[in-house]
């Protein structure tokens, strides 16, 4: 496997953790989730950068839902250790501009540009709104403010299709509870009593066939369904960076850390993947989920899913006290007690602290002398 990774011009890996040297950064949202994932807070020492380079990896996609587990300080320490270790990376930065920009790697056959992003939005069947990505969301600021570190996010929204009886009932509930008047004041900018509602322009504008209920958009249709769409602000920024990378590199790789689905297909993924190719990408890939097949689009490669390459989770020695309390545990309990409590609460199929990933593989994309995709090979890896 190591020989295979060393044999290619450039091997890219998703590094889904905070790299730090023991700094006491405050624990935040673990994995951008409500209460932390079964993996808890994911960290690694700076020596991991050397291990990855030894294996043959030359660049890292750093935009994912765990690089912000220790908020902005953890993101900055990860950046510092990537730079100190000489590992090219993309997807995180001290500002929005820095997090969005590509990294460039010179290889023996040409220059490769890498753009990395992470999804943000509701999960699975989209029933519960996603928590606001506090601590993950970068910003470009000017004096007297400082720019905010964060992750290159591709946010997405949902539209729920319902039939006529359900549509009318949602309207009746909203009117009966007096929620309609708050929509009017929020749209006019006179009341922000419900925070973080206005995430897009023209949000909460009702029509005869579209109605907003508890901040979620419902559309009148024949049956029930869910449609997802990317935020225009984010997708426009990403496409600009792809077009810039196309002018600067021989090969452009775009990676999205997508955990909004298991084996399902969401509309915003196709929108972004095809748009990325149209903007100039040669390879588009989703990491962070199971293998979902390979698509050839306009002669370019779309890798719809790369499962976990390696996950070592055998020695969790500490868990934040706030998470312990959520599990009903006190200061005298240990990390093993916490993991056992989570397993019992989640059922027999939840797994344990020791995780074995099966069915993952290494995807190799080969180009011809004119930088056209010639072949995609998948090498299975079992461990």
Task: Explain what you see.
The chain has 383 residues and is an alpha/beta fold. Helix content is 27%, strand content 26%. The chain has ten helices and 19 strands. The strands form five sheets. Strands 7, 8, 10, 11, 12, 13, 14, 15, 16 and 17 form a ten-stranded mixed sheet that branches. A three-stranded parallel sheet has the order 1-4-5. A two-stranded parallel sheet has the order 2-3. Helix 3 links the parallel strand 4 and strand 5. The radius of gyration is 22 Å and the shape is globular. Mean pLDDT is 85; it is low at 349-356.
Rg value: 22 Å
List how many beta strands DSSP finds: 19
Biggest β-sheet strands, sense, barrel: 10 strands, mixed
Q: What's the end-to-end separation, in Å?
A: 11 Å
Beta percentage is 25-35%
Low-confidence stretches: 349-356
The class by helix and strand makeup works out as alpha/beta
Gross morphology is globular
* Helical proportion, percent range: 25-40%
N-to-C order of helices and strands: HEEEHEHEEHEEEEHHEEEHEHEEEHHEE
Q: What's the quick description here?
A:
27% of the residues lie in helices and 26% in strands.
């Amino acid at each position: 496997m190591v020989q295979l990774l060393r044999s290619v011009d450039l091997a890219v890996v998703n590094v889904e953790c905070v790299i730090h040297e023991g700094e006491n950064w405050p624990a935040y949202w673990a994995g951008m989730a409500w209460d932390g994932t079964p993996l808890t807070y994911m960290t690694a020492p700076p020596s991991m950068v050397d291990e990855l380079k030894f294996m043959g990896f030359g660049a890292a996609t750093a935009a994912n839902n765990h690089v912000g587990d220790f908020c902005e300080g953890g993101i900055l320490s990860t950046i510092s250790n990537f730079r100190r270790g000489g590992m090219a990376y993309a997807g995180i930065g001290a500002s929005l501009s820095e997090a969005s920009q590509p990294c460039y790697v010179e290889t023996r056959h040409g220059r490769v540009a890498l753009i990395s992003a992470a999804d943000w939005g509701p999960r699975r069947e989209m029933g519960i709104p996603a928590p606001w990505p506090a601590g993950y969301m970068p910003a470009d600021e000017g004096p007297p403010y400082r720019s905010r570190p964060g992750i290159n996010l591709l946010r997405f929204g949902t539209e729920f299709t319902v039939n006529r009886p359900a549509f009318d009932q949602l309207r009746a509930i909203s009117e009966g509870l007096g929620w309609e008047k708050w929509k009017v004041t929020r749209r006019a900018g006179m009341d922000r009593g419900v925070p973080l509602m206005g995430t897009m322009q023209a949000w909460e504008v009702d029509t005869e066939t579209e109605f907003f209920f508890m901040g979620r958009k419902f559309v009148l249709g024949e049956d029930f369904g869910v449609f997802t769409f990317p935020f225009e602000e984010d997708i426009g920024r990403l496409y600009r960076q792809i077009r810039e990378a196309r002018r600067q590199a021989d090969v452009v790789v775009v990676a999205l850390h997508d955990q909004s689905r298991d084996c399902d297909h969401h509309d915003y993924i196709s929108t972004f993947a095809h748009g990325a190719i149209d903007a100039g990408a040669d390879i588009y890939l989703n990491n962070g989920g199971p293998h979902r097949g390979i698509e050839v689009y306009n002669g370019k490669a779309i890798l719809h899913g790369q499962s976990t390459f390696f996950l070592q989770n055998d020695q969790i020695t500490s868990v934040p006290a706030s998470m312990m309390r959520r599990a009903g545990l006190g200061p005298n309990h240990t990390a093993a007690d916490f993991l056992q409590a989570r397993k019992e609460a989640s059922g027999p199929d939840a797994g344990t602290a020791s995780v074995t990933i099966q069915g993952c593989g290494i995807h190799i994309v080969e180009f011809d002398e004119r930088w056209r995709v010639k072949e995609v090979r998948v090498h299975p890896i079992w461990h």
